Amino acid sequence: MLKAVKYRLYPNKEQEALFLRYFAACRYVYNIALEVKIYAYRAHGVTVSEYDLVKQLQEAKKENEWLKEFAAQTLNYEMTCLDLAYKAFFKTKKGFPKFKSRYDKQSCTFLQNSFVPDDQHIDLPKVGLVKGSIHRRLEGVVKRITVSRSASGKFYASAIVEMEESKHQLPGTGKAVGVDMGVRNLVTIHDSVSQDKVDLAGIIKSGKSEGMKRRLEHIQALIRRVQRHLSRKTEHRKRDKKERSKRQEKCRIRLARLKEKESFIRANLLHEISCGLTNQYDTICIEDLAVKNMSRTAKGTVEEPGKNVKAKQGLNRVIVNSGLAMLRTQIEYKAAQKGRKVVVVSRWEPSSKNCSHCGVKNTTLGSKTKWTCNNCGESHDRDGNAAKNILAAGMAASDVLTEYTRGAERKTRNKKSGGRVSKEASTPENYPTNKERKSRTKRIVAPQGVTDG
Ligand SMILES: [Zn+2]
Fold this sequence. Notes:
By secondary structure, the chain is of the alpha+beta class. Helix content is 45%, strand content 16%. The chain has 2 domains: 161 residues, no CATH class; 218 residues, no CATH class. Strands 1, 2, 3, 4, 5, 6 and 15 form a 7-stranded mixed sheet that branches. A 6-stranded mixed sheet has the order 9-8-7-10-11-14. β8 and β9 form a beta hairpin. α5 crosses α8.
């Protein structure tokens, strides 16, 4: 299993200059290779392979002496990156590889002979020992280390490590949990043992989530302000095609720092939640929110304009902000590391509208947070009820083992209804029976691959 760990680097002046030269060289060979590929295809209709590009790079080094300063593997790796970018383009049919700009995020990758020798340094070929804060020692074989510079000018090293899978498996707890992820409350969970709605604070250190939320809101307000400042400084310069000014640059860095801070706080909150869940529970049932669909633009098309555009736009922003997709990814990879099971409940389950006590669907809920069942009179908390339903559906589904991959489900879903719930399925009469529902709810084996944290 591959795992990624990111460290902050503190290069000295010389090393910093060297890294900048590395970035420039990588950008240079990448852009030229992209140009070669585009030209070869347009003029002669041929595709230049990664192998050919590497060979051409060796030739180019004879004319460009300055390229010899850099580790050969690092430059060659750019050809691999370009190849991957092309493959991704052909797979998804969008996002043709772009030329790299010096104004974008900068990075270069070291492959052979890169180590993390002690708690204070990273050893890179042709660069030497670079100071860094090694908050976590690496267990396993280092595959590659990517050095990058963030928009605010900080240096980071991201190490990809091949590690044994069984190392972090935890003993079973015999507990399962239903997780409702939403916009109003980021996470509401329902415990299988205590049969109770558990507060978020029960998962992460108490009081921390509220404090984080407040800090996040504060920083978001600051970001909006600095963004206004920056656009005021940028607008006329862009129009008159002037160089970037010093004030503008200062403002840009300030904004970049704030954005970095924001993303750290958010990532920290999500890591605490996913870590707490995977530590405490054997089986974690989550809802397939199809975040991508929910965050799709609400405006619709000219023929079919969307309804409640303004309200939905607000909702979209919050969904993207709260990073539900990131949380799901984290839960999945941490579960795989710790030997836990993740059950993804189909999003066709009307989990928030069904009464968890008698199972009758209540259609007149609207957007109420507390409601009483029309059938049995049980009073419910909206998210807590949903979490309970997700747990029940997940436990029922975990008996039915089906081969499942996220990609495969997405494909069939797109074919059938363009990714949306069809009208027939959402009316109560045609709603799937329990048996059908079971077959729709499939068990997911968390994907293996590159993870971070
Ligand atoms: Zn009821």
